[in-house]
Write a structure and sequence with these properties.
8 strands; 2-enoyl-CoA Hydratase, Chain A, domain 1; 184 residues; alpha/beta
């Protein structure tokens, strides 16, 4: 629906995991916005994270679209979902929102030998590097926190998120009267 300035904006909401199903729903909704001539998407977003590969795909997909994306953290954005959130050109968070970054988790499997353990460690370290590269490119998180993120959970409140460039401001999402929001 066009706003007063003539920009055609789609309003979307997502809460869920960054896995193949969640990423497919988000990508499909964004693709629909592009294919139906929307200029902008405003995305209310909350996710505890999920799989790095799915998150990296969605980050790259969002960055490639001819669409302005404004993302709002309206709850919690954690783990690989932070990288996804950073794909948006314009980013905000609620005054009650939270961000969390942490090291990549290696799923444990019984009976893993040294070779499989080393392979899993190498994959986790590579995923940490990919995620960290996005955090460096799209935000100004202090080096100390990026280093600490490799060994523990780092919680970032709204003021810190603004200070670190994760968000452009702390503001509540408000759906304009007469517009629709679609939950994906």
């Amino acid at each position: 629906m066009p706003d007063l300035a003539g920009t055609k904006i789609s309003y979307l909401g997502f809460t869920g995991g960054i896995d193949s199903a969640g990423v497919t729903r988000i990508a499909a909704a964004l693709n629909t916005a592009v294919n139906t001539g929307f200029d902008e998407v405003q995305l209310c977003f909350s996710s505890l994270g999920g799989y790095v590969a799915d998150g990296i795909y969605l980050y790259n997909h969002m960055r490639s679209l001819p669409l302005r994306i404004a993302a709002y953290n309206v709850g919690s954005v954690s783990s690989i979902a932070v990288a996804v959130f950073l794909a948006a050109e314009e980013r905000y968070c609620s005054s009650h929102a939270m961000f969390m970054i942490h090291p990549t988790v290696i799923p444990s499997q019984e009976g893993m030998g040294a070779d499989r353990l080393q392979s899993a460690l190498d994959a986790a370290l590579a995923d940490d590097t990919r995620t960290e590269n996005i955090l460096r490119e799209r935000a100004s998180i202090p080096e100390r926190l990026l280093t600490e993120r490799r060994t523990r959970d780092i919680h970032i409140n709204p003021k810190q998120a603004a200070d670190y460039g994760i968000v452009h401001g702390v503001r509540e999402f408000a759906l304009p009267r007469g517009h629709q929001i679609i939950q994906i």
